[in-house]
Amino acid sequence: MRGTTAQERIRRRVRRQRDPPPRLAEPQARAMAHILLTHGYFLAEDEKERQIMKPYPPLGLLYLSAYLKTRGHSVEVYDSTFGTRAELLQKIGHAPGGLVGIYTNLITRSSVLQIIRAAREVDSTVILGGPESANYSSEYLNAGADVVVIGEGESTLAELIATLPTTGPRALHAVRGIVFKDAAGMPVHTAERAKISDLDTLPLPDREAIDHQKYLDAWRTHHGASSINLITARGCPYKCTWCSHAVYGYSHRRRSPENVAAEVAWIVERYNPDQLWYADDVFTISHPWLQQYSQQLTRRGLHLPFETITRADRLQSEAAVIALRELGCYRIWIGSESGSQKILDAMQRGVSVEQVRRAVKLAHKHGIRVGMFLMWGYEGEELEDIAATVEHVKESNPDIFFTTVSYPIKGTPYFDAVKDKVRLPVAWAEASDRDYFIGGRYGRDYYRLADVWLRNEVEAFRLAATDPGRAAGLMETARQARDEMSRVTAAHAL
């Protein structure tokens, strides 16, 4: 992270622009409807994230707020990240008969269900959106939600809240892109809504609807530098079997370089962050776009450090890495997932182990740090695949790496492949997709041993030349974990 020196350098470089300001939400004179938008994530209740403390604002809700305001609706956004459960429920209780829109994802299920109950107790209409409710529309409707929006939300939500006063929540057949229950209590899936083809037509996120300073302060307090998120595109065209495409499908639509640069200029003038997080699924998908974007930032005198995510196959050329570095990229995150080509092919990643290693090497050559994501336990993984992953991380030598145990998300090809073996050990209302247990697979203790093996052997590899004594101790710990996994593997085969 860059500290105060970088912040001062950015201030010197950023000048007031003569370009027209980016399009912001400008409410029309008369409000047609009022809606409360919120989500079910509470930072105060997330012990792990409070140790990390890298929160970002809910961009999806802020895009919805901006869009609805340009259509004349009154919108309040309750950002539960820095709020409290009691405060949100009280706010809902004090506005009976209203409209409540809730963003859902796989870690907020129980909170969302509680918010639904609170809203229904005061006869409010509940509208859900996001990947979780799209995958479990029937369950959420049965839990009291009135409507589930499927896919991109702006156009659908605007039409929906304009239609509800006339039809009520049981006769919404003409609204595309939703699921609801009709008068007979039967679920109705309406026709799919076309995606917004030109993202430049959208207003910028309604950042003023929430307190961004809380996010900036959290970052600066815990990491010495503030950070703000933005997106340049929506969707991912790649077809990895475990990845959810519930909202944007397999589309990829990108804003123009001019439009994104104008937003960055506005962000800098309004919030002056030390760095940015480009939250795209694959930031480097188009190399010409990167070049054009770099030109737009240079024209405006903007150069902020940032981090983002890429696929290894989109970072194979010197030119692409140089473009990233010139833009200000100080760390790139790569979804490596496994060091076994067999597993990568089973995931339909469309990436080779060698491409990952080359991407890391090129990034390091040009002074860009690398973070790597890895996944244990994918269907078909065996001990030799885990060993290949350990060797892969040693060979790649990323600056940082994180592991997770694969979990099947409903609606993905991975879920469909293992659904006959999927078990949920707790009630659906209290669970998330992360709680699914796949019959016949090793337990979490097995993958904790994999973590011990990986982290100790990689660290030993790095210290071998400078601290051979410590390296030997780490290798012994790694060996013990590997041997225990071998015993468990042998017993599992009986």
Question: Any overview of this molecule?
Answer:
There is one protein chain. By secondary structure, this protein is α/β, with parallel strands linked by helices. It has two domains: 25-189, Response regulator (Rossmann fold, 3-Layer(aba) Sandwich), CATH 3.40.50.2300; 209-493, pyruvate-formate lyase- activating enzyme. Helix content is 43%, strand content 15%. Helix 11 links the parallel strand 11 (275-278) and strand 12 (306-310). The protein starts with a helix and ends with a helix. The model is unreliable at 1-21 and 26-31 (pLDDT under 50).
Short structural description:
The protein is an alpha/beta fold. It folds into two domains: 25-189, Response regulator (Rossmann fold, 3-Layer(aba) Sandwich); 209-493, pyruvate-formate lyase- activating enzyme.
Low-confidence stretches: 1-21, 26-31
Q: For this structure, what is the CATH class of the largest domain?
A: Alpha Beta
Distance between the terminal alpha carbons, to the nearest Å?
50 Å
Quaternary organisation of the protein chains:
single chain
Q: Count all strands and give the number.
A: 17
CATH architecture of the largest domain: Alpha-Beta Horseshoe
Overall tally of structural domains: 2
Number of helices: 18
CATH H level of the largest domain: which superfamily? tm_1862 like domain
CATH topology of the largest domain: pyruvate-formate lyase- activating enzyme
The mean pLDDT is 93
Net shape: globular
**Helical percent range?**
40-55%
Please summarize the sheet with the most strands: 7 strands, mixed
The secondary-structure class comes to: alpha/beta
Rg result = 24 Å
Q: In percent terms, what proportion of residues is strand?
A: 15-25%
